[in-house]
Amino acid sequence: xxxxxxxxxxxxxxxxxxxxxxxxxxxxxxxxxxxxxxxxxxxxxxxxxxxxxxxxxxxxxxxxxxxxxxxxxxxxxxxxxxxxxxxxxxxxxxxxxxxxxxxxxxxxxxxxxxxxxxxxxxxxxxxxxxxxxxxxxxxxxxxxxxxxxxxxxxxxxxx
Length: 159
What we know:
This protein is about 70% helix and about 0% strand. It is mainly α.
């Protein structure tokens, strides 16, 4: 059952990213390295204020939806009520999502799809190297230890 839940959670993550870039990858320019963002702005593909507005319009609902889904999976679907049980489940989901984001989203989807190549920036390096992925994912793995405690606390309070 947990494998199915992890798959559904990762599919939700993918759907949220896909929704963010409806109309083209430039709508998700905030996902790109700063150097690519700056070049895209210089080329007039988007302005900084619009990019920042799109980031907020994506990130706030993204975090709310992903948090709500996680709390409902752990508390309602799995019936976890103790902090410890909810914490370990949350940690599992967050760490799997972290790896999924780095490998499937960053390296496979972004790295092997022409969709993410911005017009006029075909030469810009926007795909993270394995070293960059490992560094970012290692830092996030530590952050999710604390994030799982927050989710565990919410589940414990609600359920």
